[in-house]
Amino acid sequence: MKPEKMRAVASYGPYDSRYEEVSVPEIGEGEILLKVKGCSICAGDLKSYHGGIRFWGTSEADRYVEPGSIPGHEFVGVVEETGPGVTCCKAGDLVCAEQILPCGECYFCKNGMHWMCQRSAVFGFKNYANGGFAEYVKLPKGTRTHVLPQNFTTEQGVLVEPIACGMHALEQANIRHDDVVVISGLGAIGLSMCNIADLAMPKLVIGLELRDDRAEKAKEYGADVVLNPSKVNVAEEILKLTDGLGCDVYVEASGSPKSAVQGLTVLKNHGRFVQMGVLSDLVTADWNVIGDGKELTIIGSHLSAKVYPAVIRGIEKGLIKTDGLISHTFKLADWEKAYDTAANDPTAVKVMLEP
Ligand SMILES: [Zn+2]
Ligand SMILES: [Zn+2]
């Protein structure tokens, strides 16, 4: 039987998250209660904790986070209870949920583009869509749930969301077999994108990363070449590797404005630029490169579209790798240490909390 109270991390403001006792959510029609097995920390959770303006706004009017909400959208758990009308899963199933809770009402939801929902409610930032830094999480009606194979590890379960975001960015890129693909930023998602880009069998996969210790992992994950922008002239190296033409695809996954500008520089004429990372600052670039210069295609990538099932199949078949992507695991009570590790430890790839 589920208890009445549970421990959770709740966020009340920048640098004000609290480990506290809250009620286990009651569930009603169409709702599911998950007993959380693990939930990994997304860059977005950290940016919110550190007071990011996209999260807390400049006043209450443009604040995205509801105070008291429980963060964490990269969770996996076992179904504890289902409300009336739930048919997608049953008690005991291992389940993960898509990060966005679609409203079901807006133009995008009604036209099959739930990930572009205008309400834009990602789990972990709203009181009606609390996240997985807790012992239990309620999946409200309309949640897009996915039942995972029972032999998935907790690590594999939590990684479905971040990998899905990377996979969607790559589907946006439309990789062809004679393409040279550059992935800039080799965090957990970037590493996974090396893997998934490699599965598409392009001519070359090049990873860009400031941390040298990532190079070996990136090669294990399918990168043919890894360059460190702080040590080599990336543009020169890419030109050398491409007969002076530049790369066909540049996926910006680092969130650094410098990396975005670099993409415009290293792409070849008619190249495709995919913006996947969430940028920390405004980008200043010579916009002419896109038009009068190279006739580039600029493509955005938001969340994970419809790729969860493909990620789950890929992990199940062993095509999509997950080993080593969760570098650290902490107990929920040690959330502060976990946040600190995720933000500051150079050996951290992705950090997971477990109740
Ligand atoms: Zn995430
Ligand atoms: Zn909607």
Element layout with pairings:
Layout: E1 5-13, E2 16-23, E3 32-40, H1 43-49, H2 53-56, E4 74-82, E5 94-97, H3 107-110, E6 136-139, E7 145-148, H4 154-173, E8 180-184, H5 188-199, E9 204-208, H6 214-220, E10 225-227, H7 234-241, E11 247-252, H8 257-266, E12 267-275, E13 297-300, H9 308-317, E14 326-331, H10 335-344, E15 350-354
Parallel strand pairs: 8-9, 8-11, 9-10, 11-12, 12-13, 14-15
Antiparallel strand pairs: 1-2, 3-4, 3-6, 3-15, 4-5, 5-7
The structure holds zinc ion (2 copies).
One zinc ion binds at residues 42, 44, 73-74, 99, 161-162.
Low-confidence stretches: none
Oligomer: single chain
Main sheet: strands, sense, barrel? 7 strands, mixed
CATH superfamily of the largest domain: Medium-chain alcohol dehydrogenases, catalytic domain
> Which fold name is given in CATH as the topology of the largest domain?
Quinone Oxidoreductase, Chain A, domain 1
| N-to-C SSE string, H for helix and E for strand | EEEHHEEHEEHEHEHEHEHEEHEHE
Number of strands: 15
Number of domains: 2
Helix content, binned percent: 25-40%
Tertiary shape? globular
Overall residue-averaged pLDDT value: 96
Q: Which ligands occur here?
A: zinc ion
The amount of beta strand, in percent, is 25-35%
Architecture of the largest domain in CATH?
A: Alpha-Beta Complex
Query: What is the CATH class of the largest domain?
Result: Alpha Beta
Distance between the termini: 17 Å
Round the Cα radius of gyration to an integer and report it. 20 Å
User: Helix- and strand-based class?
Assistant: alpha/beta
Number of helices: 10
